[in-house]
Design brief:
single chain, mainly alpha, elongated, 2 helices, 44 residues
């Protein structure tokens, strides 16, 4: 018997992946790279 989880990592990852897929649909590869780099900032 499984206990109820408060946080479902698989569900969250699927939601993120689906959102990115929709956004990337109209972008070419260089645009996708730029999109990701603009949103990932190195920790200081």
């Amino acid at each position: 018997m499984r206990s109820e989880k408060e946080f479902d990592a698989v569900k969250m990852m699927r939601k993120i992946r689906d959102k990115l897929s929709k956004e990337f649909k109209s972008m070419n590869y260089p645009e996708q790279k730029r999109y990701i780099r603009e949103r990932i900032k190195p920790e200081t």
